[in-house]
Amino acid sequence: MTHYLTDNPSPDEMAALPGLTLLEFGVDWCPHCQGAQPLLAPFLASRPRLRHLVVEDGKGRRLGRLYGVKLWPSFILLRDGVEVGRAVRPQGLADLEALPAGE
Questions:
Q1: Phi and psi, residue 74, nearest 5°
Q2: Residue 52, class by beta-carbon neighbours within 10 Å (0-12 exposed, 13-18 middle, 19+ buried)?
């Protein structure tokens, strides 16, 4: 089971991240979030330099609102702190591979 960070990073911390970062928004109890994990594993394994942050979302979670997260899981790809791609509730590995995560 994935464990989501309950102490969310600040927007300034996100903006300062160098390189590629994949933000995963969701919660532990979400069946869609749990179902996405088998898709995520090979995606991350093939991109060892991709930073992956698993962020708990929900009421009162400012970071999810900043990125306009409406559905879980939402995967947001940042390059040098700027959003360059997004996959919401991916149904297959191809949905994640469509992110511009070239290294």
A1: -120, 130
A2: middle
Q: Taking the model in full, what pTM does it have?
A: 0.93
**Predicted confidence (pLDDT) per residue in 11-61, tens digit:** 999 999 999 999 999 999 999 999 999 999 999 999 999 999 999 999 888
Residue pair 71/21 in contact (Cβ under 8 Å)? The answer is no
CA dist 25 and 29 (Å) reads: 12
pLDDT (average), residues 66-87: 96
Query: Rounded distance, CA 67 to CA 49, Å?
Result: 23
CA dihedral over 87, 16, 55, 65, signed as positive or negative: negative
Q: How far is CA 66 from CA 23, 48, 72, 76, in A?
A: 13, 27, 15, 12
Average pLDDT over residues 61-88: 96
Contact 67, 23 (CB under 8 A): yes
